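subagent[fold] <- orchestrator: predict structure for attached chain, return tokens only, no commentary.
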Amino acid sequence: MTYRAGIIGTGGIAGMGILGMHNEEAIGQEKIRASHAGGYDETPGVELVAVADIDEESLHKFGEAWDIPPDRRYEGHDTMLAAEDLDVVSVCTPSFLHRDHVVDAVKSETDPDVIWCEKPIASAVSDAEEMIEACDDADAELLVNHSFRFTDKLQRLHELVQETGLLGDVHSVSSQFRMELLRNSTHLLDTLVYLLDARADRVSGYISGENEAVNSLDAGRAVDDAAGGGYALMDDGTFTTIDCTIPRNDSSMTLSFVGTEGKLYMNNDDGEWRYWSLEDGEHVEEPLPGIEGAWTWEDDYESAFSNAASHVVELLDGEATNRSPGREATRSLEIIVGFYISHYTGGDVSIPLDRPLRDVTITSW
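subagent[fold] -> orchestrator:
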């Protein structure tokens, strides 16, 4: 059988391109493969049949680019959810709308079995919790599009760290990436919590207030998302430092791990992963078992969307365990919200956040 997919939101990540990542002349005019629609298009067993947006012009452009019939281009997600029988719904709207769109989808008559939601999961921890609970109640999988989790190299590295003890007990991680924390650096933070398989216990943060998205996105609304960073003490004892204050053009996504059995250096922008085992007090450089080369945006990120769509089909077939569930996506959101609370209160923040703090909302695009 062929599963039926619908998309809420017709912006860049849905299928029309993102400034800073794709050819500017192509954005909003043609198919962009590194997208939800591109993932569906390249994956056997699933077909994109409907799309919804409140912006009529964007809806038309998307529909023309991706060959969606006019009668299946819906002005408003409620209309699509009432009219269509969908197995999976992609939520590709700004993060402050994710809660409403995910909850509406799983409670609708279309009754999807999978929600493929863009990262970050939400703008507030309480929103993320409500989304998770609604999906649990509907017996639907909430799959969050932290793209790195859908790449073979990172999955293999996770295996090496968690199952074979490549690094032993990790003492410390230092990491860097670009501003802004929610829009961009959720990728870095999710990679951190994924490889450690840990949750923050205590954080302290700094927010610079700078962002590049207002100009690059021609954004018409002011939001909270900005450059920042700090430290996070994880619940496994690992001490991590996170610097996401760097402009896009100057940045590289880097993580450096130091453990009892070795150390690992990852530079995803420049395609360099290096590993040293610790032998008799000496670090000896060795290849990473089962990994050729290093993660790159050009190859691995481009393939992540078709991999994620294939994983959607596996979930619908009942043949897989969710690789990027909502509960794990909330781990990175907790750190970001904790940084904001710490900055504005001048103190450390404990995680899990206390009840009122889980409602703190960090808006983004």
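orchestrator: received. Logging for downstream: The longest strand covers residues 170-178. The mean pLDDT is 93.
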